[in-house]
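Hi P.,

Sorry for the delay on this. The queue was packed all week, but I finally got your sequence through. Input first:
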Amino acid sequence: MRRERQPRGLFEYRDHWINREPGRDGFYYYWYDDGNRRVKRKALTGVDLREAQDELIRILGRAPVSSKAPAGVWLADVLAHYKDYYAEPRGYKPMAAARRAAQLVITAMQTISPHPTVADLTRTNQRRIWSYLAKEHELSAKSITTYMIAVRAAVNYAAVPQIIKVNEREEEVQLLDAPVAVFCNQDEIAEHIGGDVSKPREYIPTYQELGKWIDAIEDDDDFRFVMIMLNTCARNEAIFDLVVSQQADFEFGTIDLNPKGRRQTKKRRPIIRMTTNLAAWLSHWKDDKPLRQYQDTVEKRLNRMGKRPEEKDETGKVTWKALNMPEMTCYTIRHFMATNMRRASFPVSKEQRSKWLGHSVNEGSKTTDWYEKFDPDYLEQPMRATEEIIRKLQKHTHRKLYAPTVRSQGKLRVVK
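Then the structure:
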């Protein structure tokens, strides 16, 4: 095995090195002359090693900066590269989030440097970004953390070779030789800007509150979203990505929440049992893609419902009665189902709850999971708990939570 060459002398720079000679207190710099095939030397005036190093660097000139070094790459190019080739292919919402993060951070950095490079993302400058976003945009520590996470993702993405399409041709592109450290600790950001650290959502509506909220839904796509959420506990993005012909298996009674071609991430999208309620709604809607409107459109309407004040017409008649549920969002339904699944009239194991919600489960293997989805008892407990919760919720809402025609699946189970 070839041995790695050891550094020459006390300091080495651009094929030259510094060393001492017996009988002289100063330093020499040395180099190998290819023409004479000899090592040559010259004396340096520096009296200590640090001065000698600086003198050698001045003599030889600084090494040219790589075009891919952080100091040679514009920050705006890195953020645009991430938005165009990573976020945008994943949909409007990731693209909009990446674009917003880029706008805010570039604006903040331009108060420090008119044309910021990636190397300008020093720790000191990042703290200045935090202060700027908190003061000028009144952003919380949590929001600033979210935007800084997007910046970190963009920098890391640019430091890895990516295959992108340019004029219908695939090309390998790597903008950065190496990433820089981007700090995203919410505690540190909160301490610096004098803000508070966000707390987990603790609000879980009662059956009565959720029933009133569902009764207030006016748009059909909003109601479809709620029914799919109740039946699957899926995350918002998974519901909007749902394509029935590709993901629903009516023969085996399962639904794969992870579309074909999508790589699993930390926010895992599982294969779950399809409830009778959801199967009936999908058959009733007859739409291959049940959610027909943009995600932001539906989410904004649902999130605004609980905050809307009471409204009256010209005669003074109440046309909208305020729900007074300011903490209610469409994502709260997932928390509602997860909480009430633990309160079902029969036990639902933690492992099955975790699989249903798309949380990581250490037990089992991919092979085992593949066979389980065809097992008649696969995720039986959370499916039954889901149907029990919907039956109970129906008692507290005037709107029908069952499709106009619910056909039997022709299966009979004896439940102890």
